[in-house]
Design a protein that fits this description.
heterodimer; A: mainly beta; four-stranded antiparallel β-sheet; about 5% helix; B: alpha/beta; Rossmann fold; 2 domains; five-stranded parallel β-sheet; four-stranded parallel β-sheet; 14 helices; about 20% strand; globular
Chain lengths: ~325, ~400
């Protein structure tokens, strides 16, 4: 069985290499954090289950550690960021944080973790090596999405309650600006080059696009799905492709994921996935999109070229985020 | 500017100052006043200990304070200062209450009062100098939203009809249509029964037998006091109990003659809030409340939190609004609000009721939420709960 699995993985990798020379193949490809059973579910590129790695409690947002062999995962009920070695198949270390971390961002050098902490409404920066807090900055109540700019200078944090994005200057460790966005802002994505910051508004049923130069909302992107009302659409998870051409937005209760043209801000299409689409991730060559469905406990694999959902596979219990390698 | 006390005076000053100074000098101060009863039977020690489901677990001040703290910094940045106070009234002398409200120049009132006292105050509303926005945070009577309505009166707690519709949807969705209906002997129980009957009719549920219950162990009254005799026949899917006191309803589950679920005031109960709900940021709010009070957040606490949150949200969106503009923003239903229930909430323009989802709760858990999946409405799904526009009895919109 082990042999068969490996063989089929290699087979898939070989064909992927033919199609896209840049495809990076390893044994496991897709990692899904599963909030209720405290594991990271590990799947092959095609959704085949490989294993579950036990983690700290209530794993949510994930990011690759600098080595590329370890996953950092925010554990809401353990008050820590777990460090999970995917080869060893276990959590090997942890960075203690404030209460109930959900989303974090790593500095470009991987040395600092910026974490939104609800207790005291703050963004706390932790030194990964020494595991010590470096500084904290007050935000609006219920801070959520965190994004560190690639130049390492700024950190953006959303506040779900005050409907705003807080801009923190890392050098002076202070808030230097605040932008009002839509209702209940959740996640952030930056266009390559950093000209635009996109923010999903869960209750606003929209995405606010912030002009980062003058720190104002230049456009509010609305979504429409035939047969649904605006209130059925609750965007949360989002990513922008590395070529900067496409944004993928999970539409929450609308059970769809939207493909948006970044240049024109036009919605190209919406694709039906599972119940309450949440986190989104792309594979290495961008040919497949993975959509986490929080309420149907599964993961939908979308073929990007055709814009079609290929299949949906089980992915734990209340899956939250997905990352790939 | 710092000396400004009254919102009105400050605004006049600030508008004048705008001609001379940069825009940032805007400042207004807003007084929020919670009005409760001095000797409120709901907060007597014994009543609180009984902890009947759906009843308040304490006074609503802390929940209001939590909402204030959430948006305080934002509002301060835009020059608005919110102050929260509470006062306890004897429930009789309206003149005295008016004098106190006027003395404190309250622009927002949160009424934690029984229906009669709320009505009495709204009848003399014209004598309140600030023409405040009034939030009913503790009374579910539909009459306050209907025939007794007032343009300045908003209701964050769901009405009885909303709760009844939620339950009726739940039963209809499961096809648990046949019921034995047990109603208490109090006049309030009878009034509640009339409201629930309208929901029962709307969703095509069938009352196979309706009986009055009494709280009594007296063998001469056993037909009305013994749960087994009350629930033995005819054939039914559920036992619905309507009990405004709560004692009989609390003891009814598992004491029925047949293995049937109890719903209504006991067993499965429709609620505005329940701490077991795990989604939409609800646990964070319940957690904040628990930390401050060492108590579970109840529906009335949520309604208090929601009232302050509604006002603060409207102000946060348009920081230079007058009180009249803020009322319009809320009452017109154009301001959407985050009640941590997953969907955007707003006030119904026709009666000032906050439209919202309802939790279906039993004991320690939430079974689900209404509106239930599959229920349809031509405009707004939340308006399947409670008085929709065409059936509203409110004439003063």
């Amino acid at each position: 069985m082990q042999y068969m699995t490996t063989y089929s993985t290699l087979g898939r990798c070989a064909s992927a290499l033919v199609l896209a020379a840049s495809a990076h193949c390893t044994w496991a490809d897709v990692f899904v954090s599963s909030e209720k059973d405290n594991v990271i579910v590990v799947l092959q590129n095609d959704g085949t289950f490989i294993k579950s790695i036990p983690t700290c409690k209530r794993p949510r947002h994930m990011a690759w550690a600098t080595t590329g062999k370890q996953i950092m995962v925010a554990c809401g009920d353990s008050d820590q960021i777990g460090i999970v070695d995917i080869t060893a198949g276990k959590q090997v270390d942890a960075l203690p944080t404030g209460e109930s971390p959900e989303i974090f961002a790593m500095s470009p050098d991987g040395k600092t973790a910026y974490v939104s902490i609800e207790e005291g409404s703050q963004m706390v920066a932790y030194d990964v090596a020494s595991k010590k807090p470096l500084f904290s900055v007050k935000t609006g109540a219920e801070p959520e999405g965190v994004l560190a700019t690639p130049d390492g200078k700024l950190v953006y944090v959303t506040s779900e309650v005050t409907n705003s994005v807080h801009i923190v200057d890392v050098a002076i460790r202070k808030q230097v600006g605040m932008v009002k966005v839509g209702k209940r802002p959740r996640r952030l994505a930056l266009t390559p080059g950093g000209a635009e910051l996109w923010v999903t508004n869960e209750l606003g049923s929209s995405v606010s696009i912030i002009d980062t130069a003058n720190r104002t909302v230049k456009k509010t992107l609305e979504f429409e799905i035939a047969g649904m009302r605006k209130s059925d659409i609750s965007p949360v998870g989002m990513l922008i492709t590395s070529d900067g051409k496409t944004a993928w937005v999970a539409l929450g209760r609308a059970n769809h994921v939207a493909e948006v043209d970044v240049a024109t801000h036009a919605v190209r299409k919406v694709i039906l996935a599972g119940k309450r689409t949440w986190g989104v991730g792309l594979n290495g060559d961008g040919s497949r999109l993975y959509v986490v469905n929080g309420l149907s406990d599964d993961l939908t694999i979308v073929d990007v070229a055709s814009g079609k959902a290929i299949k949906t596979v089980p992915a734990g219990r209340v899956p939250h985020s997905v990352i790939t390698n | 500017m710092a000396a400004c006390r009254s919102g009105f005076a400050c605004r006049v000053f600030a508008w004048g100052a705008l001609w001379l100074m940069p825009v940032s000098v805007w400042a207004a101060s807003w007084q929020i006043l919670i009005v409760g009863l001095r000797d409120d039977p709901r907060y007597e020690r014994k009543t609180l200990e009984q902890a009947f489901i759906g009843k308040p677990t304490g006074r609503p001040l802390v929940a209001a304070q939590i909402a204030l703290d959430e948006l305080k910094d934002n509002l301060q940045d835009s020059g608005n200062q919110l102050k929260l106070q509470d006062l306890q009234w004897d429930g009789k002398n309206t003149t005295e209450l008016l004098a106190e409200i006027n003395k404190r120049k309250a622009q927002v009132l949160l009424l934690d009062l029984p229906a009669e006292q709320q009505k009495a105050l709204m009848e003399v509303f014209g004598k309140i100098t600030t023409a405040p926005i009034v939030f009913n945070i503790s009374e579910s009577s539909d009459a306050l939203r209907g025939a007794s309505c007032h343009p300045h009166w908003l209701h964050t707690l769901p009405s009885d009809r909303m709760l009844a519709d939620a339950m009726a949807q739940w039963l209809a969705a499961r096809n648990w249509r046949d019921m034995i209906l047990l109603v208490g002997a109090q006049p309030q129980d009878q009034a509640l029964r009339d409201v629930w009957m309208a929901s029962i009719k709307r969703y095509g549920l069938k009352v196979k037998a309706e009986r009055k219950f009494v709280l009594s162990g007296d063998p001469r009254q056993r037909e009305a006091g013994n749960p087994k005799l009350l629930t033995a026949e005819p054939a039914h899917d559920v036992v619905m109990v309507l009990d405004t006191v709560g004692e009989f309803a609390k003891a009814l589950p598992y004491n029925t003659a047949l293995p049937r679920p109890v719903v209504g005031s006991g067993g499965l109960v429709p609620l505005a809030w329940h701490t077991s709900w795990e989604r939409y940021g609800a646990p964070q709010l319940s957690h904040r409340f628990q930390k401050l009070t060492n108590k579970q957040m109840a529906s009335q606490d949520w309604a208090s939190w929601m009232a302050v949150k509604s006002f603060a949200t409207a102000l946060d969106e348009e920081p230079k609004s007058t009180l009249a503009q803020l009322l319009h923003k809320l009452r017109s239903g154009t301001t959407t609000l985050d009640g941590f229930k997953g969907t955007a909430l707003s006030f119904r323009p026709w009666d000032g009721q906050l439209r919202q989802g309802i939790f279906m709760a039993h004991g320690e858990a939430v079974a689900g939420m209404a509106p239930v999946e599959g229920v349809l409405h031509p405009k707004e799904i939340l308006d399947t709960l409670g008085a929709d526009e065409p059936e509203s009895l409110c004439k003063r919109r």
